[in-house]
């Protein structure tokens, strides 16, 4: 039998009570950088942990335990479809001191797909974690929602259907419509690949998902979006449809947990680094085209750091969200190179319900 472990549950839903500190990190893996990230994160004493996909990277290992030389071997076209399940056990044992004491919610990334016999996908991910899918009206472990005090979290999937006719979209529309902002003033969403990232890696890779879902998130007044996938840190200004908008969400990219693939450092707006639209994979089809308006009109990339990009840095680290009240939340990002208490990026995120009213439930 294991040792006994204890943790504090989330505050009851209400506008005046919040988890003191919410740790947010993606693309962890199990490397020397991971150990620094997790040690710093634990030193910041979170009350809730959000893992934004790409957890163990078990799919980068062959079934004999040796590391694959191909980072793309889990693609549908690849002749190699292997994954090393003991890697999940190694990762789980390493994470135990954290996840056994801090309530943890996860969402899947592409490294959790793990295509296996009989076309199974997400088998390890769906078996090793518990999701409040049924409680939130979802029919899948790949998308769900939950409350933590005065925050309503929506966890979405970019790796199953998300168009307007899909079960996920219909569930999201219903879930957002049921949110009572008098009870949970803050509305936060998370999924793995980002809609707004200025790095060349995975640039506009899920443009179809943005086209399908962005209006819905904007209409219901989502405040913050967390993403991973790109191995770097970036925070946006409030943005909607690539334009600054005081009522749009703040998008925060935290794919800098410590993964084995290394950091992404090249920006698409730098000379010679803009990907070709024809070579940009879009998991939902072909939606990434040249911009038709704004400073980048007629181009696929901006020729300078976009207005919506507020801060970006290629360093491993983690983030801490501290919701203070119904309108103010403090966000801080902590790079691994520095002492855990030092913030490399820190800002208050302010809700303005009078300026950006949301229809009452």
UniProtKB/TrEMBL annotation:
Gene Ontology molecular-function annotations: acid phosphatase activity
Pfam families in alphabetical order: Metallophos, Metallophos_C
Coiled coil: none
InterPro entries: Calcineurin-like_PHP, Metallo-depent_PP-like, MPP_PAP, PAPs-like, PAPs_C
E.C. number(s) listed in UniProt: 3.1.3.2
Entry cofactors: Zn(2+)
Origin: domain of life: Eukaryota
Keyword GTP-binding: no
CDD domains cross-referenced by the UniProt entry: MPP_PAPs (cd00839)
Catalytic activities: a phosphate monoester + H2O = an alcohol + phosphate
Alphabetized UniProt keyword annotations: Glycoprotein, Signal
Uppermost EC category: hydrolase
Domain Purple acid phosphatase C-terminal span(s) in chain numbering: 299-337
Gene3D superfamilies per record: 3.60.21.10
Location of the Calcineurin-like phosphoesterase domain: 21-233
The protein's name in its UniProt record: acid phosphatase
Upper taxonomic lineage: Eukaryota, Viridiplantae, Streptophyta, Embryophyta, Tracheophyta
């Amino acid at each position: 039998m294991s040792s006994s472990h204890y943790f504090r549950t989330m505050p009851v839903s209400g506008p005046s009570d919040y988890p003191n500190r919410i740790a947010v990190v993606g693309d962890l893996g199990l490397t020397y950088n991971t150990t620094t990230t997790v040690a710093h994160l634990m030193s910041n004493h979170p009350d809730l942990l959000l893992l934004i996909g790409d957890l163990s990277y078990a799919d980068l290992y062959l079934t004999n335990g040796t590391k694959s030389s191909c980072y793309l071997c889990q693609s549908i076209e690849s002749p190699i479809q292997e994954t090393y399940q003991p890697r999940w056990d190694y990762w789980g044992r390493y994470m135990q001191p954290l996840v056994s004491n801090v309530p943890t919610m996860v969402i899947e990334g592409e490294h959790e797909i793990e295509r296996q016999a009989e076309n199974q996908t997400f088998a390890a991910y769906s078996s090793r974690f518990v999701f409040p899918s049924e409680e939130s009206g979802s029919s899948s472990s790949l998308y769900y929602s939950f409350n933590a005090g005065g925050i309503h979290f929506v966890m979405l999937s970019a790796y199953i259907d998300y168009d307007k006719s899909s079960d996920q979209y219909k569930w999201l529309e219903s879930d957002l419509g049921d949110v009572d902002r008098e009870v949970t003033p803050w509305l936060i969403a998370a999924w793995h690949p980002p809609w707004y990232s200025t790095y060349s890696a995975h640039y506009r890779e899920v443009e179809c998902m943005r086209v399908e879902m962005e209006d819905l998130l904007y209409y219901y007044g989502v405040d913050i979006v967390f993403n991973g996938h790109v191995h770097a840190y970036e925070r946006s200004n409030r943005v909607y449809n690539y334009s600054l908008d005081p009522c749009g969400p703040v998008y925060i990219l935290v794919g800098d947990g410590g993964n084995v693939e290394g950091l992404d450092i090249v920006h698409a707006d730098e000379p010679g680094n803009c990907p070709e639209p024809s070579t940009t994979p879009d998991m939902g089809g072909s939606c990434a085209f040249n911009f038709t308006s704004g400073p980048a009109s007629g181009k696929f990339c901006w020729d300078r750091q976009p207005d919506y990009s507020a801060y970006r840095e290629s360093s491993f680290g983690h983030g801490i969200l501290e919701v203070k009240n119904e309108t103010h939340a403090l966000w801080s990002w902590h790079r691994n190179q520095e002492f855990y208490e030092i913030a490399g990026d820190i800002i208050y995120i302010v809700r303005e319900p009078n300026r950006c009213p949301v229809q009452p439930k």
